[in-house]
Amino acid sequence: MKKWAFVSDFDGTISKKDFYHLVLEKYFAEGHDLYKQWKSGEIKDIEFLRQVFTSINQEESQIIDDIHSLEIDGHVPSFIRKVQAQGGDFYILSAGTDYYIHHVLQRHEITDVKVYSNEGYYKEKNVHMNIDPEHPHHSERYGIDKSKVITDLKNEYETIYFAGDSEPDSHPAKVADVTFAMKALQAILKEHHTSFIEVNDFTDIDRYLTNSGVLC
Questions:
Q1: Are 97 and 198 in the same domain?
Q2: 167 secondary structure, DSSP code
Q3: In 50-176, which ranges are E strands?
Q4: Of 49, 68, 87, which residue is a domain's last?
Q5: What pTM was estimated for this model as a whole?
Q6: What Rg, from alpha-carbon coordinates, does the chain have?
């Protein structure tokens, strides 16, 4: 069994803005009513994202330019390298789609990171998701069940560190050994009585792991 791994959410945790927010702002203003339906629980997360991602109607070069415009936490690339240098593995776990995540990783020259997410692909001016109901990590609500991924990883590693920022991250937070919570996730985990470490960004996470002797 390997010693440890760090697993991070992508949208709003590594990236400063969720990709769906960018699409709503640039291409799908009428999607704000859909957003309200989603937040009120009328439609599932995956249904919301499917409709948003298929409302872009742009050439792939434009979509990739938009993806590249997503700002990420500036400390993430060096943090990932530090984790890997200390013998840890780094994973990204996202209920969005791997389509834009891989473009961001390439943009920032981040390598040797496995992405667990809903499979995405470009077709007919939009981003589509290939959701397999038979996949062992399938979730009817999110497309991917983050807690199932963490549970599987715990069979490979002694310790799993996890970072997230929003409601979908509350489920894997219950399974991970140590959870770093940002933004809305902090209040959600308090409400659920799930233990976590309050952080603002990856600089805070780096400081905590360095002080704990995990990183040096």
A1: yes
A2: G
A3: 89-97, 114-123, 126-130, 138-139, 143-144, 157-164
A4: 68
A5: 0.97
A6: 17
